[in-house]
Amino acid sequence: MVRLHRPRRPLHTARQVAAALLATTALVLALRPAPAPARAPATVPVVVAAADLASGAVLTAEDVAVAHYPPDLRPAGTVEDPAAAEGQVLAGGVRSGEPLTDAGFVGAGLTDRLGPGQVAAPVRPADLAVSALVQPGDRVDVLATPPGAARAEVVAAGAPVLATPGPEDDGLLLLAVDADTAARLAAAATTATLTLSLPPRSTAGAGPVAPRVGG
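Predicted structure:
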């Protein structure tokens, strides 16, 4: 007796073909070499501020850090070695993480003119024209007039001028003072009106004078 085979259903055949394709694909993927790990983009070191720094700050090793920038995003005028920034004087305040550039420094050699125990302190008189009257090497008295006060008080006396304002510095001066006087100047700048006077040359040449503060 002859047996007749029933034709396979199309759905069954399609399933077999799909299974074969999946098996083949899995084999190809298994044999394909693993992709090479992606390379990290090239960067260059850039010296940045390690914390918020005030105008006139003399940079130390603790004030600077190193960040890494893509070469095409590196700001102009930056340095790679933190030692190259140490001893520089900031012409303006900077925020933590901000790149330090040569345009942000007052000038080379200023710290060499500081005496023992002195720091460079920024002073911006209320009348910007006053700053134009002095030159580096002059000595000045800084007077502060608190709101409502009848007279000014001297917060720094006979302070040597390290640097005078540039074209875009808004009257900023840098003075050589001791750390205590620098703190008094910073406090006075937030609440009082500052101005300058030039003491007589004989007094100015007598050396550092202790600050006189009224009250």
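Summary: The chain is about 20% helix and 20% strand.
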